[in-house]
Amino acid sequence: METTNLSKIRRDKMLNTINEIKKNISDEETLTNLSMIENELTKKKYGLIWEEHEERVDKELENQIPAFEEIKDKEIVSNPDEKFNFLLEGDNLHSLYLLEKTHKGLIDVIYIDPPYNTGHKDFMYSDMIVDSSDGYRHSKWLSFMFKRLNMAKELLKNNGVIFISIDDNEFGQLKLLCDEIFGEENFISDIIWNSRKSVSNDAVVSLNHNYTYIYAKNISEFNKRKEDFKLKLNIDSFSNPDNDPRGPWKADPFDSPGIRPNLTYEIQNPNTLEKFLPPKGRCWRTGPNEYSKLLADNRIVFGKSGKTKPQLKRFLSEAELKGTTPKSIWDDVGTATVGTKELQDIFGTKVFDTPKPVSLINKILELASYKDSIVLDFFAGSGTTAQAVLELNKEDGGKRQFILCTNNENNICEDITYQRIKTVITGKRKDSSKYSDGIQANLKYYHCTYIPRINTENENLHNNLLVNIKNLIQLENGIEIDDDKNRVYLDEDELDSFSKNQNELDICEKLYVSSDILLTSMQESIFKNNNIEIYIIPEYYFEDEIMEVM
After folding, report:
1. pTM for this model (two decimals)
2. Which of 190, 268, 330, 403 is deepest in the core (most CB within 10 A)?
3. Is 531 left (phi over 0), alpha (psi -120 to 50) or beta?
4. Whole-number pLDDT of residue 1
5. What is the domain class of 84-215+332-441 according to CATH?
6. Mean pLDDT for the stretch of residues 180-199
7. Distance between CA 168 and CA 173 in Å, rounded?
8. Strands (E), 384-467
9. Half-sphere exposure of residue 105, counting CA atoms within 13 Å on the CB side?
């Protein structure tokens, strides 16, 4: 039976009234105000609705354009033949703005651990701490997250995934927000992480967990790779008590969920002659004929004693190819205390309140990344994601790249995030004591700077933006523009001079040329004969910004 939508009836009545009023009004201001009321009445009527707020950093985009400035003395190079990782210092809204130019649709995995908005001074909005007394606390947090998650979605590959950690304070709001941005159909799971082992006796209920939402950008594209979304097997659970020549195995249930008459039949234990039917509400995995083949192939066992119901052998050699399906509760990746101790081992003292354990991020990467994946964390905090990427690369020979974004509030980026990455790569703590043998990797450190959105004789926007092209090229390609092997030319005369210098041609491998420069046929021939790869600098870097002031 269809129910009556009373809200729609009232809304339609108000809209009809407004239309009648508008027929007798010619004043433009009044008509504009009535149209605004109409817009409010016709907005979405289901989902998450909040009071929108504007940030200072959002307002700043109206008058200035973010750009990256490389801090050269923070560069780390220990593996010159591999690509660079990047640490981007600045407000993550501005960093995401620039990443949309270089990495749109290119990120495989995003992990973020945003402010939880607990009301205990953990969330700052427009330079103001948001505490529990702020009546718009949740609206400000949602406005803050909405902009960033929308940009994050644009950065993901079609088969990419995002993991978002959160606690009880905003987990309900975040779920609805992500359903709106990514689509409810793209929700994969909510991982419950056992973040604390001890019990808080002064609480009504001791909080011992966090949530991690997982969303695909496009579930149909993700499903094409979901068989890779597996964890490594626990090899210790496999054994070979009957010396099967196919190697170690473990016994899995032979029954499965569902009631199917063709898969419901008696199976006799050949050792005891006892007959078994599937448990209530379940059926056998195969029909009788296939079961007989499995039994003849020594793939059916009847428990350790040989006296129980049938089980199916799963061989390690076969299982390793598929991996194991992850569970939604993770209690094997360490706690927040472990994360704190890991960081203390690097710095010698407590320098960050809530670091995640490396093993938590490592498990996420094991699930969601390939060996050549690009991993983004735009709430980088202490830099756990960077350490997890580097350690997993060392473990499996991968070449994953990370991009980390964080502000430098209280010098967190310089003193903690950067120093942690440096220690992991070099194996040396800040005091030069040994931390480890190091992990060969490369890092570039960018600081977010700003260019005024003006175009005058003294402030030529086109020229000002071109100066920053080099840093975007490095970021997009993970390379060093060293003016030897990799070069950038924005001027025709400089390019012409280079094309006539054989010594420089012999060194150069890649050439990035402004789209304003038209190569001559002779130049194309010279570069081809010298095996130099030509890349046209994409106009999308700053095309929109330049057009706005033309």
Report:
1. 0.81
2. 403
3. left
4. 44
5. alpha beta
6. 94
7. 10
8. 401-406, 442-452
9. 2
